[in-house]
Amino acid sequence: MSKRYVMVHDENRCIGCQACSVACRSENGVPEGVTRLQVRVEGPFGDAPHLHFKYNRVSCQQCENAPCVTVCPTGAAYVGDDGLVSIKEDKCVGCMYCVAACPYKVRFINPETKAADKCNFCKDTRLARGELPACVTVCPTDALTFGDANDPSSEVAKLINTKATYQEKTHLGTKPRVYRIPTKRGGIQS
Amino acid sequence: MNNTWGDMAQYDPVTWNWVIAVYLFMAGLSAGSILIGIGLRWYSKEKAIESAILKAAAIISPLAITLGLACLVFDLTKPFEFWLILVNYNFSSVMSIGVLALLLYSPIGIAYSLIVLRDELTKRKLDFLVPVAEALMPMRKAIEVVLFVLAIGVGAYTGFLISAMNAYPLLNTAVLPALFLVSGLSAGAAANAIGALLMFNTHSHDTNLSKMHGLELPVMLSEIMFLFMLFCALYFKGGAAAAALASLTTGVWASVFWVGVVGIGFAIPLLTMLMPSQTRHSKGVMIAVACCSLTGVLALRHFVIYAGQSYIS
Ligand code: SF4
Ligand code: SF4
Ligand code: SF4
């Protein structure tokens, strides 16, 4: 069976420290001014003294049905054998159709390569070396879990099967592969 | 307060800007102008003489598509690698299909223009092109039909291009291609009128010109109908789609819509139809009205591009 890499972001554990963002930047050589990952601190929600924040991870959702791949005229945006949505820099003309079409607004034009860019689950860097993605490794609270959801013994499979999770904008039919565990103090009951 | 997560500039939902709006306008204008030119020729009995409208279309159509494509290429982040898009195709991408259509449409359009303008070529010291025009002459009928079909494709394709993005409720509707095609026709008719009146010194009571004039009202009414359908569809869909209706009431794009599209594009031309026929058919008024229609269509493309991307579901 083929792999199905997913990422789970536990919004209960996340503290919004941005360590993941910094690690991503250094691991993948992301230039100044653009970013593959942000963790936005939203809120506060609720009434004092029970205030809480929401930690919203904004990065490529690795859609199984990816609009960026469908619209790309040259095939520069593609789905690899490992199922990951990546970009062939040398095939990209920079038409920005994918940037416009991504419902999560996580694609950007890399100012150095002039090609579209985004999170690729560290496919070229850490994953290629058999390591976990940089953001996952560096997270001080273990809020991130990464792995093959098709392997029932994997940590991610267990998490998705036992915890209530949600994905963003599922109504668009993109089938995102970033799962989120909602904060218990939040409005969403788990 | 500074946020801890950094610069938000890259997350601006408006990715495609006015350059793309101008391209969409030019492509619609090119297609509309040649569709009207050929349509009127088929409809008229006198086929031996090239009408001033068709001659105007033969100049406007290739010029508009060339300028439009120039906008498109220079809007790429790698303009000098634009050929990549010509050698790699992805048939699930509307852009790829459009590139293929334009690849046929542009040269065939130029070939057809040479045929139509063959007498003008000698007058304007372009004699070296005359043999080419003569050689193309026997294929006129075939070229005309193929060009007509391709022009419908090009006119509608610009609508499909942006309606394919399902994240934007204002763009992701089935009427957009139809709306773009008819508004392209109205731009084409307006530009043809200006061309015929100014470049070929047509009389403002010319029969072909009046025939084209007769098309204006039905074209404009269908434009209004499609716009109405677009907003109704959003309203009944509810949720994020209905929220996009705010584009009609708030922000600068609402003004562009009401002043540019509705006021200048529809109201002024419709009101001039109430003028006495003598004034209405004077050269000055005809040119002014045509300019209003062109402005309206250009405003519509800008409204659709900017307002369309501002509301995301
Ligand atoms: S989140 Fe955006 S960039 Fe990532 S796969 Fe989905 S559509 Fe493509
Ligand atoms: S910007 Fe590059 S990757 Fe994106 S659609 Fe255009 S060619 Fe494809
Ligand atoms: S998986 Fe890799 S590329 Fe993606 S956000 Fe994490 S560190 Fe960045």
UniProtKB/TrEMBL annotation, chain A:
Signal peptide start and end residues: none
InterPro entries registered for this protein in UniProt: 4Fe4S_Fe-S-bd, 4Fe4S_Fe_S_CS, ET_IronSulfur_Cluster-Binding
Keyword check for Membrane: no
Location of the 4Fe-4S ferredoxin-type domain: 5-34, 51-82, 83-112
Keywords, ordered alphabetically: 4Fe-4S, Iron, Iron-sulfur, Metal-binding, Repeat
Molecular function terms, GO-annotated: 4 iron, 4 sulfur cluster binding; metal ion binding
Transmembrane segments: none
Superkingdom of source: Bacteria
A Pfam family hit: Fer4_11
PANTHER family in UniProt: PROTEIN NRFC, PROTEIN NRFC HOMOLOG
Protein name per its UniProtKB record: 4Fe-4S ferredoxin, iron-sulfur binding domain protein
